[in-house]
Amino acid sequence: xxxxxxxxxxxxxxxxxxxxxxxxxxxxxxxxxxxDLRLFLAVVDAGSITHGAAKANLSLPATSExxxxxxxxxxxxxxxxxxxxxxxxxxxxxxxxxxRLIFRQMVQMHGELGEYAKEMRxxxxxxxxTAAMVEYLPGRLAPWLVSHPxxxxxxxxxxxxxIVKAVSGGLAEIGIISDAVEPASLQLRPFAIDRLVVVAAxxxxxxxxxxxxxxxxxxxxxxxxxxGALHDHIEAQAARRGKRLKVRIKVRTLEGACWxxxxxxxxxxxxxxxxxxxxxxxxxxxxRLSDDWATRRLSICFRSEEDLLPVARDLVAxxxxxxxxxx
Length: 327
Known about the structure:
Blueprint (H helix, E strand, L loop, with lengths): L14 E3 L5 E3 L8 H13 L2 H7 L4 H15 L4 E4 L2 E4 L1 H24 L8 E7 L1 H18 L3 E7 L2 H9 L5 E5 L8 E15 L9 E2 L8 E5 L3 H12 L5 E6 L2 H9 L5 E4 H8 L4 E6 L5 E8 L7 H12 L6
Parallel strand pairs: 5-6, 5-7, 9-13, 10-11
Antiparallel strand pairs: 1-2, 3-4, 7-14, 8-12, 8-13, 8-14
Helix pairs in contact: 1-2, 1-4, 2-3
């Protein structure tokens, strides 16, 4: 059963104010077992009831029934179904926070009991922006995973602002964010310096420029990244200048974007290491953006070392221990 937490408003927990200000919480009927909590986390992590059911090895009807029973038992809507998938309500976020605490405590219990810990896998949830996800994390995470065979990493791409909210709310243990957002009360460790550049065909008029200003590019057409946090960030910069980014096509990878750019039909904006890498095999050129927001310090963020499991603390130490150079 969930206990009331001052971090969440009383309305989330079905509480009301009495005539003398006393709170009366209606939680007596709330009964969630570990299967319910595990299923709920699977649905939230997958962003889909169908995919969450498959991840939890339950049929879709059984999953839907369990979720309905959970909402009925507490009298609170926990999930919102929309065009972009299934996402938790504020009450659902509170449940996610407490469910993760419960499973973390279970892992700690197994660790203290010793022999049981050998049979139990642990997962660390890590959120990262596009640059960290594509350019820096693969090379840093691979050796750590090899040396920690019992640990899985649930790595997901998000915008920095969403990462701050998720880590602050306990929806992920660790995040990697840019200095373009306020970290709230999160603790930070340095991770990398990321520079965004403009990519154009090798014979484009911009190819010989030393620097370019973003506002001077907005009359041109772009190739974007489908469902990418980096693309959302660039569109937000255009909106702040009262403009819309002219996107001709969206592709899923930076390599695909470079192929499109190489044909001369549009421009691209991406991390400098990617532009350097693909320039070796494609007829493209890159130029740095002169805007301050295009040079970003990436940092590892987390709530506090005390909140992290030992394996998550070890991962933070690993990611921040060595200087990560641009390729």
